[in-house]
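Shift notes (night). Ran 3-hydroxyisobutyrate dehydrogenase-like NAD-binding domain-containing protein while the centrifuge was going.
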Amino acid sequence: MKCCNQLVAGLHVLALAEGFRFAEELGLKPALAHEVIGSGAAGSFIWNHWGALLTEGDLSPGFRIRLHRKDLELVAAECRSRGLTLPGLNLLLELYGKAVEKGLGELGDQALGKVL
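Came back to this:
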C-alpha cells in the first residue's frame, strides 16, 4: 500500500509542479492559481498544502525528494518483477532523478518544479 500511495502522491506532485509552472508562464499570480484550482475538482491535499508552501517560496521538506525517489524505485522494482509498465512512474523516476542530480534531494517534494 505504501508503494501505491507513493506512486499516486508522486503523480499529484507532478500535477502541482506543472500547474504552477503553467500558471507562471501565463503570468498568473501563484496565490490566485493556488486558491482557484484548490477550490475545484483538481484540488487535493498536495495541491492545497504544498501549493500553499510554494506560494510562500517555502521548499522545506515535509517529505524529501530523495526519499520519495527511493520509494518510487521500489515501485519500479515491483513493476519490473511483474512485467508491468507504468508510463507515469517512468516520468516520475526521470524527474525525481534530475531533481536529485541538481542537488534538490533534501528539499520538499514541492521543489520538483525546479526541474521543469
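DSSP finds five helices and no strands in the chain. The helical segments are 2-25, 30-38, 45-55, 65-82, 87-101.
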